Amino acid sequence: MRGILEKDLTVKILSTFLAIILWIQITIDEGANQRRVFEGVPVEVQNLDPGLAIFEGEGRVSVRLTVQGSQVVLNRLDPKEIKASVNLRGAISGTTQYRVEIHLPKGLSLVEVTPPFVTVRLESKTAKEVPVRVQASGEPGEEFQQGVPVLSQARVTIEGVKSKVDSVAYVFGWADIKGATQDVRRTVELIPIGPQGKEVAGLSVRPAAVDVRVPIAPLPPGKTVPVTAKVVGSPAPGYKVKAVTVEPAQIKVRGQTDRVSAIKAVETAALDLKGTKVNLRQEIDLALPAGAYLMQPAKVTVSVEVIPDRAQKT
After folding, report:
1. Is the distance from CB of 213 to CB of 183 less than 8 angstroms?
2. 25-34: long-range contacts at Cβ-Cβ below 8 A with a sequence spacing of 24 or more?
3. pLDDT tens by residue, 248-293
4. Got the DSSP string for 127-186?
5. How far apart are alpha carbons 171 and 162 in whole angstroms?
6. 90, exposed or middle or buried, with CB in 10 Å at 0-12, 13-18, 19+?
7. What is the pLDDT of residues 111-164, one digit of tens each?
8. Cross-strand partners of 159
9. Hey, how many other C-beta atoms are within 10 angstroms of the C-beta on 98?
10. Taking a C-beta distance cutoff of 8 angstroms, is the pair 242, 306 a contact?
């Protein structure tokens, strides 16, 4: 009995000793410095002069950070606690490199930052007034037509770097009127438009949106009539026209009731076949008949099939 008790006591002492050694090892491992890499840490701009602005696409970068700390600290770390910034106090217009400053939570140290410098292009900030243009998108109801959009204000102010502000000709927005059968009212977001009709990014617009009313009015009665293609000229010698087709074959003409009732067909603008040896397919305008002021659609597609003119003789 005594031997058994002594044996159990020895096992307990040995187990406790091993547990203490394991705890010490874990504590040592957790306390040892570990490294971790953080990709894409955004670089914030601090102390920028209100009269200056960053040229779009430059200076707004991210960096790669390698930090060091205990396993415990790293496990509890929220990546948002790591901050990277550049201090632009006293900066002037031009392109300059600035050192990236890193701010880490307590218990961490910085090993490496890549890149250590970022290039920032600063320009003086300016503002100007530009006209507002709004265009309706979509089509109103089948028996309705849109009027000219009415704006709550005709001009707005744009602000940003001088080179971009100077390039803006107007601001633009879309007003959706699809399927409308009465006046449409929209609040339209505005986009600065520069050379070649392209958007100029990185500018602020004040106000950023305007209220728009698009008048919608009923169309007068219409009449559906066939379309005939006006073909002039002759194909090249040895060729002839086999067929002429129009898509769509019918359109709706609207205007004064008494005048429209007399319209039997609508003719296309002239399509010249002079000297051609190949098939033609072309979108072409319609000739507006007297007494009509609206055609739906206003264009049609004319297809002309041209074939060799062969003859047989016995």
Report:
1. yes
2. 29/71, 30/70, 30/71, 30/72, 31/70, 31/71, 31/72, 32/70, 32/71, 33/68, 33/69, 33/70, 34/68, 34/69, 34/70, 34/71, 34/74
3. 999 988 887 778 888 888 999 999 999 999 999 999 998 888 777 7
4. EEEEEEEEEEES---TTEEE---EES-SEEEEEEEHHHHHH--EEEEEEE-TT-SS-EEE
5. 16
6. exposed
7. 999 999 988 888 888 999 999 999 999 999 988 889 999 999 999 999 998 989
8. 127, 204
9. 17
10. yes
For residue 314, what is the DSSP state?
-
Q: Of 297, 300, 291, nearest to 224 (Cα)?
A: 297
Torsion, Cα 285 291 296 298, to 10 degrees, reads 10
Token pair 């409308």: residue: 180
Please report, in angstroms and rounded to a whole number, the separation of the first and last CA atoms in the chain: 135
List the strands of the sheet with 266-272, edge to edge: 266-272, 222-232, 250-255, 292-296
**Which residue carries 């008048």 as its tokens?**
215
